[in-house]
Amino acid sequence: MSVAASRFAAESTTPSQVASDLASLNINSTAAHYTPSEGPTPAAQGGGGKVRAAPTTQAASNCSTLKDRAESAFCKLSRWTRRDFRHGDIISIPYHTPNLDPYVQEDDSCLTYTDEGYVYSKRRMLIVLWIHQQDLFCVPLFSFGGKGIRGKPEWLRKEYVSVRNKGDKKFDNQGPCPPVDVVAWKKPMHPMTAVQITGGTKVNFSEDIAFCGRTTEDGYNHLLELWNELWMKAQGEVWRN
Fold it and tell me: How many CB atoms lie within 10 A of CB 195?
C-alpha cells in the first residue's frame, strides 16, 4: 500500500448512493448544494460536521465546536486536534482577505475596516492537503459567482482545477485537466466549484472549523500532483537581480 493510500479509509458512501442523492436535487438551486464562498458553520453541520468514528476531544453532550471556557468575548476557539483531520478533508472556515474589489459597497456586511485597510470576510471552503503539528495546509475553493473556471482569464486557468461530485455523470469540466472527485456531506458541491491550486492557506486547528466532506483518494492524489507540478515549475525559475 502506498503512503497516500494509507491516509484514506474505505469509502462509506457508494457511487450509486451519491448518484441517487444528486438525482434528487435541483443542482441549479443555491439551497441544493454547497457554495464555496458561503461555507456552513459548525452549528449548521451539527458537531462541526464530523460523521466518522474518529477520536475527538469534543464533549459528547455538546455538539458545538466552541470551548466551554471562552478565552475572551472576542475569541472563538474550537476543540479540534490533529487527530481529527485527514488528508482531503473539505472544511469551512472564517476566511479573511484584503479587499481588492473596487466594486464592493461600503455597507457590505462582509467588509470591515482595520488600521491596515479594509478586510473582506466570508466562510470559505477549503481542501486539506496535509497536516502539521498545529496547522493544516489547505487550498481554497471558489465558484467565481457561478461562472466557474471559465470566469477566469485564459492564462490563469492552469492554476485551477474543477471539482466534481462523485457519481455525477452530467458534469461539465471547465478546466484544462481532469477534475478532482469529492464526496460532500448533506448536499453536493456547486457544479462550478474549482480549487485554486496555487492558493495555499494555513489553518490552525483551533479555528472555527466545520467539516463538509472529503475528496476521494484518487481525487486527492490528482490534486497533490497538480500542486507539485506548479510548485516545481515556480521553484525552477532562475534567480533575478
Answer: 31
Indicate the range of 19-33, 47-61, 124-138 predicted with least confidence: 47-61
In sequence order, what are the residues at sequence separation of 6 or more whose Cβ sits closer than 8 angstroms to the Cβ of residue 63?
Answer: 43, 46, 47, 48
DSSP labels, 134-187: SEEEEEEEE-TTTTGGGGS-GGGGGGEEEEEETT-TT----SSSPPEEEEESSS
Cβ 136 vs Cβ 157: under 8 Å: no
Strands (E), the chain: 89-98, 111-114, 117-131, 135-142, 160-165, 180-184, 194-196, 201-204, 210-215
Question: CA 65, CA 46: separation in Å to the nearest integer?
Answer: 9
Contacts of 54 (CB under 8 A, 6+ apart): 83, 84, 86
Determine the Cα–Cα distance for residues 82 and 84; give it in Å rounded to an integer: 5
Nearest Cα residue to 190 out of 150, 123, 144:
144
- Residue carrying the nine cell digits 476521494: 216
The model carries a pTM of 0.79
Instruction: Name the DSSP letter for residue 106.
Output: T
